[in-house]
């Protein structure tokens, strides 16, 4: 830690162990690359390429193991590559088998902490790819009965990375991780939508005043309001689902820039087929691998769609905070579950903490989308070097949105109750109900009565009857909850204000 209190990253695991290895404080093994040799902690599954990344990128204090779907996706890509290479004779059965087994263990949750390079890194994701290669190789060596680091028997690059480069592995794994993340988000998002729909049914007969521009408008039901929330979430379910097929277009077989160098011409189709087999997700090889390797357009689409969902969910949370405001001096139409004491100085205060945290998730998603947009634009020539920040931005947004949907549903929506007495009082005293009478008494007369009601606090119903414009029974039928909320259609507007007989008001 520096003197000003900021963490340098030295306290992070496994950077702590890496530094201890450099100082000779723990058992080590020696590994080499084109830049020289370094001592690696003997117990580490990662190797020298990961060690250099630990040294170079102590930036975010968030390693890629914080994104488990990315770790699983990397394992699936390496597993499919090993199977394709064995099928084409580019990898022996023995090596392909231990790579396959190591990957299956990672998918099941093993060794995730070994995927320890920083999520934000230079090199277009090379450190992440090499971290995966080294962990899989060293676990494979164990399965062969060899020591970690004994790469003569299973090599991170020559074997685990056979027929691949970072430039096709990394974007493919990112896309696959995003598919996993969207599927998980959709599950929580749909459960949240169902919770809103249930409240819509529960509040179906609760009449209230609608508002436009924060001013009283016309009546509706609280059920209609909550059903509307459910409908807007359903629209985002559709938009998020539509992104998945675009993410399923991959560039495996492109190797460095899309020309397929170092790979068998049959490899791209073979690895695609095996990736479909191990994931159960239909994927297609991009028709133009050079374009697919350099273009980050799908990431902008995914991020923008996620932002749309976040913004709309945040707007709903704004509404929930307004509707529950008070409880005495605000709208106070609904009551949110009390989750925690709201103030260190004001006794009894309870804040809408769950909608507030969801708002903040949405703000983060909006900012992440701006980051993704800038990173996509900054790509140059045959590769975008900034996919690490694209990946971390979108995967974080997916995880936070998923958690936000869960906590909003469980800790808020399912426990909301209606303040029926307050709602009934507001409807009874609102001049907004006069709008329902305009087809029968005309706009000018309705406006005059509304003004009188506001200045005298008189009942609209009584004013209409006293003016002789309608019979009391007629007013009651027009102003019934069913008609006011639109559940029973109103008679269309008339060209002249007339007093209709009762049988024409049914």
From TrEMBL:
Query: In this protein, which residues make up the domain named Fumarate lyase N-terminal?
Result: 39-367
The record, for Gene3D superfamilies, names:
Fumarase/aspartase (C-terminal domain), Fumarase/aspartase (Central domain), Fumarase/aspartase (N-terminal domain)
Enzyme Commission number: 4.3.1.1
Source taxon at top rank: Bacteria
- Keywords (A to Z) from UniProt: Lyase
Q: Where is the Fumarase C C-terminal domain?
A: 434-484
Q: What general EC class does the enzyme of this chain belong to?
A: lyase
Q: Which Pfam families match?
A: FumaraseC_C, Lyase_1
- Per its record, what are the GO molecular function terms? aspartate ammonia-lyase activity
NCBIfam families, per this entry? PRK12273.1
Cited PANTHER family: ASPARTATE AMMONIA-LYASE
Full protein name = Aspartate ammonia-lyase
């Amino acid at each position: 830690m520096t003197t000003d209190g900021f963490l340098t990253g030295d306290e992070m695991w496994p950077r702590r162990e890496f530094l201890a290895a450099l100082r000779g404080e723990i058992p080590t093994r020696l590994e080499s690359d084109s830049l020289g040799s370094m001592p690696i902690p003997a117990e580490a599954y990662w190797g020298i390429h990961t060690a250099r990344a630990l040294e170079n990128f102590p930036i975010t204090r968030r390693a890629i193991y914080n994104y488990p779907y990315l770790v699983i996706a990397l394992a699936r890509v390496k597993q499919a590559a090993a199977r394709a290479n064995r099928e084409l004779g580019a990898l022996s059965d023995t090596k392909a088998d231990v790579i396959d087994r190591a990957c299956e263990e990672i998918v099941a949750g093993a060794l995730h902490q070994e995927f320890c390079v920083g999520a934000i890194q230079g090199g277009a994701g090379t450190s992440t790819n090499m971290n995966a290669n080294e962990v899989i190789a060293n676990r494979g060596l164990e399965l062969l009965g060899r020591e970690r680091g004994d790469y003569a028997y299973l090599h991170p690059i020559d074997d685990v990375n056979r027929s691949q480069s970072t430039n096709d592995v990394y974007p493919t794994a990112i896309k696959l991780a995003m598919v996993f993340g969207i599927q998980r988000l959709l599950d929580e998002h749909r459960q949240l939508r169902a919770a809103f729909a249930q409240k819509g049914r529960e509040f179906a007969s609760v009449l209230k005043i609608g508002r436009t521009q924060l001013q009283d408008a016309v009546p509706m039901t609280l059920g209609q309001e909550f059903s509307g929330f459910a409908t807007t979430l359903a629209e985002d379910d559709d938009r998020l689902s539509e992104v998945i097929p675009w993410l399923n277009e991959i560039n495996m077989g492109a190797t460095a820039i899309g020309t397929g160098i170092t790979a068998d011409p049959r490899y791209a189709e073979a690895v695609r087929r095996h990736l479909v087999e191990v994931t159960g997700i239909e994927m297609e090889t991009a028709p133009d691998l050079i374009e697919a390797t350099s273009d980050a357009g799908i990431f902008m689409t995914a991020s923008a769609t996620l932002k749309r969902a976040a913004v709309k969910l945040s707007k709903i949370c704004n509404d929930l905070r307004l509707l529950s405001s008070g409880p005495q001096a605000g709208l106070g139409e609904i009551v949110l579950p009390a989750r925690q004491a709201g103030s260190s100085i004001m006794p009894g205060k309870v804040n809408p903490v769950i909608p507030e945290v969801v708002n903040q998730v949405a703000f983060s998603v909006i900012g992440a989308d701006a980051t993704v947009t800038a990173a996509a634009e900054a790509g140059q020539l045959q590769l975008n070097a900034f996919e690490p920040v694209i990946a971390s931005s979108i995967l974080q947004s997916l995880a936070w949105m998923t958690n936000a949907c869960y906590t909003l549903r469980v800790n808020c929506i399912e426990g909301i109750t209606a303040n029926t007495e307050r709602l009934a009082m507001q409807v009874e005293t609102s001049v907004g109900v006069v709008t329902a009478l305009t087809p029968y008494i005309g706009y000018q007369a309705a406006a005059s009565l509304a003004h009188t009601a506001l200045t005298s606090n008189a009942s609209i119903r009584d004013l209409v009857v006293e003016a002789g414009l309608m019979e009391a029974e007629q007013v009651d039928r027009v102003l019934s909850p069913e008609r006011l909320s639109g559940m029973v259609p109103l008679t269309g507007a008339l060209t002249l204000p007339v007093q209709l007989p009762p049988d024409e008001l049914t």
